[in-house]
Amino acid sequence: MKRTALALMLLALVVSCNTEPKTAVQKKVDSYALVKIESPDLSGITDNGKEVLNLYKFAADQADSIYWKQYFGDKTLIENLKDADLRDYAKINYGPWDRLDGSTFIEGFGELPLGANFYPADMTAAEFDSLADPVKTSPYSLIRRGADGKLTSVWYHDAFEYNIDKICNYLKAAADITIKPSVRNYLLKKIDALKTDYYYDSDLAWLEMTDSKMDLIIGPNEVNDDRLYGMKTSYEAYVLLKDLKRTEVLDQFTSMLPELQKQIPCDEQYRNFVPGDESDIYAYDAIYCAGHANAGIKLIALNLPYNEEVQAKAGTRTALLRNIMMEKFNRVVSPVGIVVLSPDQQDRLDEEAFYWNIAFREISHGLGVKETINGKGSVNDALGNKALTWEDAKANALGLYFVCKLLDEHKIPALITKEDAITTFVANLIRSERFGEASQLGRAYVMLFNYLNQNGAFKRGDSGKYSINYEKTLSLVAEFAGIVLKTQATGDYEFAEQFENQYCVMSEDFKADLVNIRLENIPIDLRFEFQK
Question: Among 32, 327, 358, 487, which residue carries the largest CB count within 10 Å?
Answer without folding.
Answer: 358
